[in-house]
Amino acid sequence: MKIAVAGKGGAGKTLVAGSIAFLLTRAGYTTLAIDADSAPNLGFLLGLSSRESGAILPVSKNSELIAAKTGTAYPGVYSLNFTVDDMVTKYAVPTPAGASLLVMGTVTSMGSGCTCPANSIIRALLRHLFVERDEMVVLDMEAGVEHIGRGTAENVDIMLVVSDAHRQSLATAGTILQMAQAAGIPRTALVGNRVMDAGQEQVIRDFARAHDITVAGMIPFDAAVARAGIAGDSIKTLRHSASVHAIGGILDRVCQDLKERPVVRDDTGKNS
Length: 272
Description:
By secondary structure, this protein is α/β, with parallel strands linked by helices. The protein has helices spanning 13-26, 42-45, 50-54, 63-70, 87-91, 117-132, 167-182, 198-210, 223-231, 242-260, and strands at residues 2-7, 31-35, 93-94, 100-103, 136-140, 158-163, 188-195, 215-220. It has one domain: P-loop containing nucleotide triphosphate hydrolases (Rossmann fold), CATH 3.40.50. The chain has ten helices and eight strands. β6, α7 and β7 (188-195) form a beta-alpha-beta unit. The longest helix is centred in the C-terminal third of the chain and has 19 residues, at 242-260.
C-alpha cells in the first residue's frame, strides 16, 4: 500500500504521515516514510534528533550520487540508463518510531518530461518505490499545490489531503484534490484536522459535499500535539493521544477500502 499525504502548509500533513508510518510499523509492516517536502521535518516526528536529521542529505541535493548514477564521459551529457534499487538500502535511515526514512527533496520542474539528472533520479526512484517494492510506503508531500503538476505522487494507491476548517486551507485542499484526480490518482480523500467542535466538522463536511469530495475522517483538536511540537517529542509520545487514535481509524478505513477495491496496475505501472 502506497499512501501520499498532502495539504496546505501548517495543515498537519506531517502529523498524519508520521502517524500512519508509525501505526503501520507497530502493526508489523515494513514501512518506508518518504519526506518530499522542501522543508523536511518528518524525521523529527519519527524520533530523530536535530543532529541526526540535519546529517541527512536529500536525494535531490546529493551531487555525488547524481553524478555516479547519471554521469558520462561527455560534458553536458548524462545517462538515463541507471538503476535505483540499491538506493533505499544505502540512504534510508532507521528511526525510533520503527519506520525507515528516506529524505527525497523536491522535484523542481513541471511535467514528467523534465530531463535534468536530479529529477530523473527522483522520478525513477519514486516509481521503483511505488510500483516495484512490497513494503508500505508513506509519502509526506511538499506543502501547497505545485507538486501535483510535477508527478511526485504518480502510482500511489491513495492521496489523503489534510485541512482544518479555515477557508484558505479548504480551498487549497480542494485544488490539490481536483488536480490529483485529473492526474489519475485512483483514490483521493479529505482529512479534517484540528476539529474543535461540531460546527467546524460541519464546515469541512459541507465543503466536501459541495465539491463532491470523499471524507476519510476527522482528527480532533489535540493539545497534546501542540505540547509535543513545542517539546520536540516524537510520535511515540502521542501514541495514546486522541489525534493518533483518530488517524488510526482513518487508516483502518483506507486499508479496508483498498482491500475491497484494490488498485490494479498494468505492466507500465499505470493505475487502472
